[in-house]
Specification:
Elements (H helix, E strand, L loop, with lengths): L4 E15 L5 E7 L5 E3 L2 E7 L9 E8 L2 E9 L9 E11 L1
Antiparallel strand pairs: 1-2, 1-7, 2-3, 4-5, 5-6, 6-7
Amino acid sequence: MKQPVIRMERKYVKVTSDFDATGYMQPRTITWEDGRVFRIEAVKDFRPAGANHDSLTCGCYTVVIKGEIKYLFFEKANTHHVSSVGRWYVECPVVIQ
């Protein structure tokens, strides 16, 4: 029997965030497309996103939601869109048969 393949897929989400006086961006809530809102209880870490992402234009926030560690990514905008700073996404597993 062939085993299903699990692939991670980007799911773009709405995020509310604050900026402190130094310009640090602090995500506060994540809103899914169905309207569910999840409060970010804490930000544990921020780092370049790593091997599966363009670490020059993408950062990974390690956040706590409902007591669980999650990863929230910020993808910096293309310089061709002056009014766009970037967008947020999470990675969700997708089963491929």
